Amino acid sequence: MIRRLIFFLLVVIGLGAIAGGITLVAGPNGEIIKMDPAILSGSVFENFLIPGIVLLTIIGIDSLLAAGFVWIRSHLHPYVVVWQGVMLAIWIGVQVAITGYLHWLQPLCFAIGLALIVLGLIELSRMRKSMAEQSSSAGN
């Protein structure tokens, strides 16, 4: 059940981030999303190109790759899920620090990032417990 929830959250975040990243890269001056690049003042960014690339790759593509790790039941999936949750929480934290609160999706995505961290740690704990039980039963 937890794995399915993790998979769902990663796919939703991944697809949304890919769509948003492509939109920002295609219209780096905010013409597509109807957002003034002036909200980036005080940051190192002149327009939305670099944030769009980061959103597309680190949040979007990496979330889908993490979902793939979950799907194939890789022994690495708990680590990848925690990492992706951390990346999402950092992304949103930096975004809000630069632009301020702009949309209800910001706290929602931050909460999803935190949920991914917690769920990934739960999965890691379960995996370690299962491995310990297997090794103790193999030793008997």
How would the blueprint of this fold be written?
Elements lengths: L1 H25 L22 H23 L5 H23 L5 H34 L2
Helix pairs in contact: 1-2, 1-4, 2-3, 3-4
What's the number of domains?
A: 1
What is the β-strand count? Answer: 0
Classification by helices and strands: mainly alpha
Q: Mean pLDDT, rounded to whole units? A: 95
Distance between the termini: 31 Å
Contiguous runs where pLDDT drops below 50 for at least 5 residues? none
As a percent range, the share of strand residues is under 5%
Protein described:
The chain is mainly α. The protein has one domain (2-135). It has helices at residues 2-26, 49-71, 77-99, 105-138. Helix 1 (2-26) runs antiparallel to helix 2 (49-71) and helix 2 packs antiparallel against helix 3. The radius of gyration is 18 Å and the shape is elongated. The mean pLDDT is 95.
Provide a brief overview of the structure.
With 140 residues, the chain is mostly helical. It has one domain (2-135). It is built from four helices and no strands.
Features:
about 140 residues; elongated
